[in-house]
Amino acid sequence: MPEFLIRGRDPEGKRRSKLVEAGSAEQALRIVNAEGWHETRLMTDDVGGVVVEWDTGSLTPDEQHELGQGSFASFVAASLRRALSRSLGFWVFLAVLIVRRALGFEWNVWDNVLVAGLVILVVVVLLPLLYGSARKYDRLAKNMAWGRWNAVLDGLQQGADGLARHEQLRMRAYALAGLGRIDEALREYDVLSDGEEIPEWMYWSLRADIHTAAEDFDGAVSDMQKAYKLAPDNPTLLLTYAEVLMMHDGDRELARQLVAEVQEHPLAEPIQWAKAMVEGMFALDESRYDDARDHLKKSFSLAGPLLKDASFLSHQARINALLALAESGRGNKAAARKHFAAAEPMLSAQGANKFLTRCREELDV
C-alpha cells in the first residue's frame, strides 16, 4: 500500500507530520482530515507514495523527506550532521578534548587518541554515504540527465543495491531507448505491465517516457492516454499528460482540460512546480509572453531544493528553454540567449532534437 507524508495540525492543534497508508494522495488527505487534522499539506504525490520507501527505524519521516530534497552533497552533509549529533562517543571525545585544551594540558598521546577517535567516527559515517546506494543513484541520475546512456547501462550492470527493481528497469529501458534500441527497451520494461510492482497507470506513464527518449512522440501520447483512462483523478498524471501534449504538439484543448481538472484535487507540494510550468507553456502557446515568463519563473521558485537534485536536471533544462522562448517573445534577446545557453547542452545530450530545433528557429541561433 502506498504511504504519504502529510503535515499539519493534529486534533490538539499541534504541528505534526504523519505517514498515512492510502490508495492515493487525495485519499490520504481525506483520512487525516476526518481524524480532525487541519491546515494539512501533502508532502508526497501519487508517484512518491509508490516509490519512496520510508526508513522509520533511524529517521523520522520528516527527516527522510528533507534528506531526499536537494543535491547529493547536501544529503551527505545533513546525514553526517544528524549521525554525529546522535553519537555519544563523538560528543564525549570532543568534550574531553575541549576540556583538556581549556585547562591548559600539554598536547600528548591522549589528545592524539581523541582526535583519531573523532576522525574514525566521521569516516565510519561518511564511507557508507559516499559509496552507498544514495551515491550510486545520484551518479545514475546524473548520467540519465546528461544522456550518457552507456554509462547508465554500465552502472546498472555493476549493481544498484538499494534501488527498487522497477526503477532499475525504468532506467535501463530509458537508456536503451536513448541509444535507439526502442524495441528492446519496451520488451524489457513490459515485465512490469502486470501491476504487481507498480500501479498500471504508473507503468504506462513511465513507458511514455521511454518513447520520448527515442523521440517517438506518438507512442508517448498513446501511452499517456492509456494511463489517463486508468487514473483520471490523479493530479500528478494529469499534469504529466498535459505536459506531454504541449511538448509534442498534441491536443491543446485536452491539455487545458486536464489542468482544469487538476484544480479539483489537492496538489502535493513537490509537484506544484509542474503546474506552473504547464501554465507557462499555455501562455507561450497563446503568445502571452509576460505571463509565460512569470509562470516559468514561479515554477523555478516552487521547485526549491529540487533544483539541486540530479533527477530534476532535465526538468530544469526544459524550463530554461521555455524561458528562453518567453524572453525572446518579450524582445529580451540577451535574457533569451542566457536561458538557452543554460538549457542547450543537456537537451543536446538527451537528443531532444525536435525541441532544440524549435528553440533555435524561434531564437535565431
Q: The biggest beta sheet, please?
A: 3 strands, antiparallel
Number of helical elements:
19
Query: Which structural category fits the helices and strands?
Result: mainly alpha
How much is the radius of gyration in Å? Answer: 24 Å
Shape: globular
Strand content: 5-15%
* Average pLDDT over all residues: 87
N-to-C SSE string, H for helix and E for strand: EEHEHHHHHHHHHHHHHHHHHH
Query: Looking across the biggest beta sheet, what order are the strands in?
Result: 2-1-3
Tell me the quaternary state.
single chain
Low-confidence segments, given as residue ranges, are none
Query: Using DSSP, what is the number of strands?
Result: 3
- Helical residue percent band: 55-70%
N-to-C span: 50 Å
How does this structure look, described?
Helices cover 68% and strands 5% of the residues. By secondary structure, it is mainly α. The longest helix has 23 residues, at 109-131. Helix 4 (72-85) packs across helix 6. The protein has 19 helices and three strands. The N and C termini lie far apart (50 Å).
Quick rundown:
This protein is mostly helical.
Describe how the helices and strands are arranged.
Layout: E1 3-9, E2 15-21, H1 25-34, E3 38-42, H2 46-51, H3 61-67, H4 72-85, H5 88-102, H6 109-131, H7 133-145, H8 149-157, H9 165-178, H10 182-189, H11 200-213, H12 217-230, H13 235-247, H14 252-262, H15 272-285, H16 289-303, H17 313-330, H18 333-350, H19 353-363
Antiparallel strand pairs: 1-2, 1-3
Helix pairs in contact: 4-6, 5-6, 6-7, 7-8, 8-9, 9-10, 9-11, 11-12, 12-13, 13-14, 13-15, 15-16, 15-17, 16-17, 17-18, 18-19
